[in-house]
Amino acid sequence: MRILIIDDEDDIREATQICLEVTGDWEVLTASSGREGLAKAAAEQPDAILLDVMMPDMDGLATLEKLQASPATNRIPVILLTAKAQPAEQRRFSQLDVAAVILKPYDPFTLSDQVIDALKTG
C-alpha cells in the first residue's frame, strides 16, 4: 500500500516514513507542505494520506478541505496527525470527514497498526 505523509517538519516526516516502511511494509511518499501534498496526492493517488494539522501557509485543515473538494483526491482516506488534544479541538476533528485522528507524539511501533485499523473502519 502507498501512503503520503504531509508534514512540514523534516524530522517528523522522516521518522514517520521509517516507521511505516519498517513496521508496515508501506511504500511512503512525502510532502513538506500542503501545496506539495495536494500536487502529489493528485499525481500519485496514494491509498491513504497522513496529514499534519499544524503547518505554515496552508495548514492541515485547509489542505484537507482542498483534498476533499477535488474529484482527483476526494476518495483518498485522510488521517490527521495532531498535537492538539483539547476536548474542543477533538470534537471539531471528529466532525470532519477523516478516517482517524492520531495524536502526537505517537508510538512509532504501533503507528502502522493504527493506520491500518483506521482504514478498515474509516
UniProtKB/TrEMBL annotation:
Residues covered by the Response regulatory domain: 2-119
GO biological process: phosphorelay signal transduction system
Keywords for the protein's UniProt record, in alphabetical order: Phosphoprotein
PROSITE patterns referenced in this protein's UniProt entry, alphabetically: RESPONSE_REGULATORY
Stored CDD domains: REC_RR468-like
4-aspartylphosphate modifications at: D52
Record-given protein name: Two-component system response regulator
Species the sequence originates in: Hydrococcus rivularis NIES-593
